[in-house]
Structure formats: structure tokens, C-alpha cells
């Protein structure tokens, strides 16, 4: 069984879904560790509650990314645990060269919008202000461009007239829990190919 690692900065709700889906057999993987840039992240607490190694790595100077020296520590931690696939789940750092090169084609991210619409942060507010009738979530491969890698899977969620950003986010989150496991299973199975920007099941 292949090893995955989750990188998370906050609550760890997607992490919780991954843990539960491994435990119930829906997700065919071993969660080798959870790594965070936030020593107080609830994600680390969730990992410990399930006897999963929880690792805090100091992110260093306050930036939106990790400086190369620090990012190399993340790379080494992942390699030391023989990680096959890295899963970002609310990891609030932009991945740069060291990790991208060490795990090329082996990093996934979940984004709470239907990419390429609304990349970045505060996406539910942007969706409501734009007036879209559907929003949703996307699992994609991580590349040097933020929220721009090839898309593995998506789920659409209807936007209701009385939605607030918070209400819409909670409804989308339930779909995130479902499709992240689906995407991880696809990638770990190796039964796909990438043609241009398209991820094609084989």
C-alpha cells in the first residue's frame, strides 16, 4: 500500500475525511504523517487522535511561501517517511521549487471553487459577488503557478439566492471530502495519463 502525507495549516476537515476514508477502506492508502507550518493547527491534533505521526516544521520568516532552506526540511521529512503522494489540505503556503522538483507530478491540492474560476483566497465571496449559479471544488496537481495545475476531478454545487460565503463554503466542503478521496485513489492507482492540461482516466 502506498504512503501519502497531508500538509495542513488549520482545522484539518479534509484531513479528517481522508483519515476516516482510510479507516473504512474507501481510500486505499497509508497516511504516513501530517505536517503543518502551524504548531497550533487542529490538523496536528486530529492526527495524534488517530495515532498518526504529527510533525510541525517551523516555516521561518513570515512569507506566503517557504524559503528554500525551510522547504527542503519539508522535502526531507517526506522522503524520510517514504511518501509517494503529497496532499495539500488547507496548507497556506505557496509551494516552490524544492518540493515541486522532489515530488514532481506527485502533489495534489483541493481548491474550494471550480477552477479556473476564482483561484486564490476568499473564493466564496468572489463567487457570490460575480453572481455565478454554480460553484464547487477542484482537485488538481500542484505546479509552479498557483491553482493552475491539471485538474483530476471536480464537483459542482448550486449557489442559492440566500447563500452567504460561510453557508456556501460549508456546502462545498462536503463535496471536498468526497472528491479528494476519489482523486487520491485515481492518482495512486496510476490509471491515468496527462495530455496537455487534461487528466484522462485509463
UniProtKB/TrEMBL annotation:
It catalyses: N(1)-(5-phospho-beta-D-ribosyl)glycinamide + (6R)-10-formyltetrahydrofolate = N(2)-formyl-N(1)-(5-phospho-beta-D-ribosyl)glycinamide + (6S)-5,6,7,8-tetrahydrofolate + H(+). Pathway: Purine metabolism; IMP biosynthesis via de novo pathway; N(2)-formyl-N(1)-(5-phospho-D-ribosyl)glycinamide from N(1)-(5-phospho-D-ribosyl)glycinamide (10-formyl THF route): step 1/1. It comes from the Bacteria. Residues 2-184 form the Formyl transferase N-terminal domain. Pfam families: Formyl_trans_N. GO terms for molecular function: phosphoribosylglycinamide formyltransferase activity. Signal peptide: none annotated. SUPFAM superfamilies: Formyltransferase. The record marks 147 as: Raises pKa of active site His. The active site is at residue 111. Its EC number is 2.1.2.2. GO terms for cellular component: cytosol. (6R)-10-formyltetrahydrofolate binds at residues 63, 92-95, 109. Transmembrane segments: none annotated. N(1)-(5-phospho-beta-D-ribosyl)glycinamide binds at residues 12-14. Keywords: Purine biosynthesis, Transferase. One of its GO terms (biological process) is 'de novo' IMP biosynthetic process. Coiled coil: none annotated. Catalyzes the transfer of a formyl group from 10-formyltetrahydrofolate to 5-phospho-ribosyl-glycinamide (GAR), producing 5-phospho-ribosyl-N-formylglycinamide (FGAR) and tetrahydrofolate. Belongs to the GART family. PANTHER family: PHOSPHORIBOSYLGLYCINAMIDE FORMYLTRANSFERASE. This is Phosphoribosylglycinamide formyltransferase.
Amino acid at each position: 500500500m502506498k504512503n501519502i502525507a497531508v500538509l495542513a495549516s488549520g482545522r484539518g476537515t479534509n484531513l479528517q475525511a481522508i483519515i476516516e476514508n482510510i479507516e473504512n477502506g474507501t481510500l486505499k492508502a497509508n497516511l504516513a504523517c501530517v505536517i503543518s507550518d502551524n504548531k497550533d493547527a487542529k490538523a496536528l491534533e486530529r492526527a495524534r487522535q488517530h495515532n498518526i505521526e504529527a510533525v510541525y516544521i517551523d516555516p521561518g520568516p513570515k512569507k506566503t511561501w517557504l524559503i528554500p532552506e525551510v522547504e527542503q526540511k519539508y522535502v526531507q521529512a517526506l522522503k524520510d517517511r517514504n511518501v509517494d503522494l503529497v496532499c495539500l489540505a488547507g496548507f497556506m503556503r505557496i509551494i516552490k521549487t524544492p518540493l515541486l522538483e522532489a515530488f514532481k507530478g506527485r502533489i495534489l491540492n483541493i481548491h474550494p471553487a471550480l477552477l479556473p474560476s476564482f483561484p486564490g483566497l476568499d473564493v466564496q465571496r468572489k463567487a457570490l459577488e460575480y453572481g455565478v449559479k454554480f460553484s464547487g471544488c477542484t482537485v488538481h496537481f500542484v505546479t509552479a503557478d498557483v491553482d493552475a495545475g491539471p485538474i483530476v476531478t471536480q464537483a459542482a454545487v448550486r449557489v442559492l439566492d440566500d447563500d452567504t460565503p460561510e453557508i456556501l463554503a460549508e456546502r462545498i466542503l462536503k463535496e471536498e471530502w468526497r472528491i479528494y478521496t476519489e482523486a487520491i485513489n485515481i492518482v495512486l492507482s496510476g490509471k491515468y495519463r496527462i495530455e496537455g492540461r487534461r487528466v484522462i482516466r485509463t
